[in-house]
Amino acid sequence: MSAVIVNDSNQRRRVVLLLFCVCFVLEAALGPNIAVAGGRIDFMLIFAGCVALSFGGTYGVLCSFGAGLLFDLMTSGPVGAMAFLLTLSSFFLGAEDRDRLADDMAGACRLFFVSAAAVELAYQLCLALTSQQGSFVDVVFLRWLPSTLLDCVVFLPFVFLLSRTGSSGPQLGKKKSGRTRKGSYRIKGL
User: Fold this and answer.
1) Among 70, 123, 138, 185, which is 20 to 30 Å from 87 by CA?
2) Between residues 177 and 111, which one has the greater pLDDT?
3) Which UniProt keywords apply (predicted)?
4) pTM of the entire structure?
């Protein structure tokens, strides 16, 4: 007897839309107002990372491009810089087109941490080249490092909640790792 796999694409849309709304509200309301040691939280980077690690493929890249473009329009940085960086980051994060959060959450978090550090460094250097930042010390120690640490810390609750929602849809008879359940069920008393 084979297991029935239900592919609910509307659930994927609902999860991404809810995640986008939460990240957009947090980016607009809290992003500019919370600064720790000169670093600010980039909720659109967190959204792009969550979508790329959960769904990957073209869907993750397109969502990341839209999030990056929205980030660029909400800030005073160069338009298109964050859109390009998030698109590139999501392409590499979601290259396998599978749900990495359900398979290996620790590995997915490590990938996001490296990606967030690279995106933040490239964006801060882009701001420095357009004369919006100060010296190299200001870029690295007062902007890049605190921003990266804040992004990584704030990413953890998002990834924990997203990994528990079952972003790939319900799969009857399958575990999160994709293997079918084997073994017998012993029911005592019947």
Assistant:
1) 138
2) 111
3) Cell membrane, Cell shape, Membrane, Transmembrane, Transmembrane helix
4) 0.78
